[in-house]
């Protein structure tokens, strides 16, 4: 913001227009479009219809205590069936948990009609696991809920998740409000929590208003079962630049649902908790996978988005372009000052204050710029998030910007499923 003010003064005094000045204005225009659209968001409120619900949980090597809690919390909300698909290495402990919970449910009148079964496949991969789970779901299934194996449901997660389907037959997919479990463990989880909250309060709500959420995040998402059956062949075989992509299964299912003419929405009152990496290395790997999956789908869906979902097109393409533009602008500023130091006459803004004061003003300006655009989220978080804004802004600049660019450059790679190291011999 400090640099913007200096550039504004230079424009007024000398008619010099700087690219960073234009970029800064664009950032606030984009924020305004997303923010004011998101203000129109409302949860779906209606009486639920009677749906037959199938929960599919692909799992590889989840810790026993975590997976037990996941299954228990889901079973408490009485879905009709829970199908656990263990893929990759054999894991008798996970099978044992499923059998134990099925036995426990059968002895309690309230839960005795819940079917809990586990299926093992040696072929690793979440897409294949979803396909197997769907093939083993009841033919009576109306709604299929896909759940990550480390995602904890809260009270009324299922009943709230079903309300949009009851509200309109045009709605084909629904995602939950996803929160980070124990977000304040360290700086990594706090940063992940901040990003998650900004996304949920901003772009997710804005796109949901239009009925076109571009990606229903896969921690817990629900689709009409009939849709999944229809799109499964394409879901399993789709390619990008001649390569089958295993990543971004949730975005792919969202794309296919939208292309069938259904709406995709978020139900903010259906809350789930998910874990976040506690180390930077794993966090960066996760973000790189998400950046790759998001951007290759942006490229694949560009024509459809431009015709059918203008806001989605605007959000996703600006997300892709902003890191590239920001790096270009920083490089331009750096080169200008480098050439100027060698005596080349180039018009640049002048930081007339002492170096320490200039740095301080730039930091304060960055905090005011970022903080003003995210004041709603920051007001809902502990006060020390505001104190840590300089750290978060540095990470956004020197870590997340390069990650987004590298993800775009690696769109034709296949990073596999998640951050787990699994030998993928079956694909």
Structural description of this entry:
The termini are far apart. Strand 8 and strand 9 (243-244) form a beta hairpin. This protein has helices at 2-14, 19-38, 64-75, 92-106, 126-135, 157-167, 187-210, 225-237, 249-259, 280-308, 310-341, 355-373, 375-379, 384-387, 389-409; strands spanning 53-59, 81-87, 115-121, 143-147, 152-153, 171-180, 220-224, 239-240, 243-244, 263-274. The strands form two sheets. It has an eight-stranded mixed beta sheet with strand order 3-2-1-4-7-6-10-5, with helices on both faces. The chain has a single domain (1-427), classed as Spore Coat Polysaccharide Biosynthesis Protein SpsA, Chain A, CATH 3.90.550.10. Helices cover 56% and strands 14% of the residues. Helix 8 packs across helix 9 (249-259). It is α/β, with parallel strands linked by helices. It has 15 helices and ten strands.
């Amino acid at each position: 913001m400090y640099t913007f003010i200096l550039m504004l003064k230079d424009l007024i005094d000398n008619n010099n227009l700087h690219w960073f000045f234009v970029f800064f204005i664009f950032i606030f225009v984009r924020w305004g479009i997303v923010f004011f659209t998101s203000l129109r968001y409302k949860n779906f409120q209606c009486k639920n219809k009677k749906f037959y619900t199938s929960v599919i949980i692909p799992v590889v090597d989840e810790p026993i205590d975590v997976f037990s809690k996941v299954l228990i919390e889901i079973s408490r909300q009485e879905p009709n069936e829970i199908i656990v698909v263990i893929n990759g290495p054999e894991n008798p402990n996970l099978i044992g948990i499923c059998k134990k919970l099925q036995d426990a449910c059968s002895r309690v009148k309230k839960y005795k009609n819940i079917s809990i079964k586990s299926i093992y496949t040696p072929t690793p991969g979440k897409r294949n696991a979803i396909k197997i789970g769907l093939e083993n779901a009841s033919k009576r299934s109306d709604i299929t809920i896909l759940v990550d194996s480390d995602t904890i449901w809260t009270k009324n997660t299922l009943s709230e998740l079903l309300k949009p389907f009851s509200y309109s037959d045009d709605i084909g997919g629904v995602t939950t409000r996803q929160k980070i479990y124990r977000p304040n463990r360290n700086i990594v989880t706090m940063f992940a929590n901040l990003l998650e909250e900004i996304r949920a309060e901003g772009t997710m709500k804005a796109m949901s208003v239009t009925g076109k959420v571009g990606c229903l995040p896969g921690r817990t998402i629900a689709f009409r079962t009939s849709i999944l059956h229809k799109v499964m062949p394409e879901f399993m075989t789709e390619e990008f630049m001649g390569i089958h992509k295993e990543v971004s299964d949730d975005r792919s299912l969202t794309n296919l649902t939208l292309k069938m003419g259904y709406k995709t929405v978020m139900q903010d009152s259906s809350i789930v908790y998910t874990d976040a990496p506690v180390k930077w290395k794993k966090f960066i790997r996760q973000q790189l996978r998400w950046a790759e999956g998001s951007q290759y789908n942006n490229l694949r869906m560009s024509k459809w988005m431009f015709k059918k979902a203008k806001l989605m097109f605007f959000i996703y393409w600006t997300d892709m372009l902003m890191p590239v533009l920001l790096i270009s602008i920083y490089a331009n500023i750096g080169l200008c000052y480098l050439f100027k130091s060698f005596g080349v006459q180039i018009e640049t803004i002048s930081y007339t204050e002492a170096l320490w004061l200039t740095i301080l003003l730039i930091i304060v300006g960055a905090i005011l710029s970022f903080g003003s655009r995210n004041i709603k989220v920051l007001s809902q978080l502990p006060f020390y998030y505001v104190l840590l804004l300089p750290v978060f802004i540095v990470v956004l600049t020197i870590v997340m910007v390069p990650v987004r660019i590298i993800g775009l450059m690696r769109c034709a790679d296949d990073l596999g499923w998640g951050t787990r190291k699994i030998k993928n011999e079956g694909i």
